[in-house]
Amino acid sequence: MFNVLLVALGGGLGAAARFGVSLAMPLRGDGWPVATFLINVSGSLAIGLLAGWLATRGDAAEPWRLFLGVGVLGGFTTFSAYSLETMRMIERSDWLGASTYSIGSVLAGLAAVAIGMMIAKRILG
């Protein structure tokens, strides 16, 4: 039950943050969704940083993964989870799965995850 509460609290905070960014950055005149693009890329960067940090925490990381990864970032954007899943397939050399999964996706999100993980590894390694 505690894990559900962690996810729910984080999800509410992430969703509220997304709503705030969307209000602060309305659509451009041509209709291009700047806020959504920035939310997805920043969420991907954040989940990359989080994944790198959590990798050094062992079992103690689970509450943080649930609250920040599943909750906050899941509520902020689902694209961050998509990007992490694709990156995990690439790390496992599952090229067919990664390429199939990533059809139609935004490459900037994947780049942001890679950058976040690299930064975390350099800081923690």
Detailed description of the structure:
The protein has one domain. It is 78% helix and 0% strand. It is built from six helices and no strands. The radius of gyration is 15 Å and the shape is globular. The N and C termini lie far apart (34 Å).
List the SSEs and their pairings.
Blueprint: H1 2-24, H2 34-54, H3 62-76, H4 79-91, H5 95-102, H6 107-124
Overall pLDDT level: 86
Shape: globular
Biggest beta-sheet profile: none
Radius of gyration: 15 Å
Work out the count of structural domains. Answer: 1
Which secondary-structure class do the elements indicate?
mainly alpha
Number of strands: 0
Instruction: Note the gap between the termini.
Output: 34 Å
Task: Determine the number of helices (DSSP H or I, runs of at least 4 residues).
Answer: 6
Assembly annotation: single chain
Percent range for β-strand residues: under 5%
Helix content: over 70%
Q: Write the element-wise H/E pattern from the N-terminal end onward.
A: HHHHHH
Low-confidence runs of at least 5 consecutive residues:
none
